[in-house]
Each structure stands twice: as structure tokens, then as C-alpha cells.
Design goal:
This protein is mainly alpha-helical. The chain is built from 5 helices and 2 strands; from the N terminus they run αβααβαα.
Length: 102
């Protein structure tokens, strides 16, 4: 799996229910600020999606991952709504309101 993926999963497990983080934010938190895309790759192969809530990671503009590995964008939206996260009219998460401040 690798140290990078393990570090990503550790950070993502810290995102509280009802909050989101961006891929870039997670990359910065693991000390690899230019590796946001690799955060996405790590989450796509997340071996424990219940324990590591990868649905809480979104793009920096609040849009959802069209290739969400565990049921697609609709499932990611459903999981976030279930946690109380509301969406803007454009379908994006309001990052000013819901972004996790670690």
C-alpha cells in the first residue's frame, strides 16, 4: 500500500462528520503539497471505506469526484447529505461553510 497512502488514510480519518477537506488540503497535511492527484489515487483504492471516510474529500471548489470509487458521484453526495452537509445551487459543497480546519 505504501507510506503515502497510509498517511492519506490517517489524515482522512480525522475529518469530522459534517466537514470536508480538499484533495490539496490532504496533500499538504501529509507533507506533499503538490500531490493532490495522488491523494485521489490513494482514496480510489481505499481498503476500508467505512473506517476511512473518503467521501469527505472533494475538489477545492467544492465539486464532487465524478469517479467516486464507492458508488459514483451520486453516492458521495448522498453520504455527505446524510452528514448534514448542504449543497449550493450549482451542486457544490459550500467550502466556506463546511471545509475542515485542522
Amino acid at each position: 500500500m505504501g507510506a503515502f497512502n497510509d498517511a492519506v488514510y490517517e489524515v482522512v480519518r480525522q475529518i469530522p462528520k459534517g466537514r470536508v477537506a480538499s484533495y490539496g488540503q490532504v496533500a499538504r497535511m501529509v507533507g506533499k503539497p503538490r500531490n493532490a492527484r495522488f491523494v485521489g489515487y490513494a482514496l480510489h483504492v481505499n481498503p476500508e471505506p467505512i473506517i476511512t471516510p473518503c467521501h469527505r474529500v472533494v475538489f477545492k471548489n467544492g465539486s464532487l469526484a465524478p469517479g467516486f470509487a464507492f458508488g459514483g458521484e451520486g453516492e458521495q453526495r448522498r453520504l455527505l447529505l446524510a452528514e448534514g452537509i448542504e449543497f449550493l445551487d450549482n451542486g457544490r459543497v459550500d467550502m466556506a461553510r463546511y471545509q475542515w480546519e485542522a
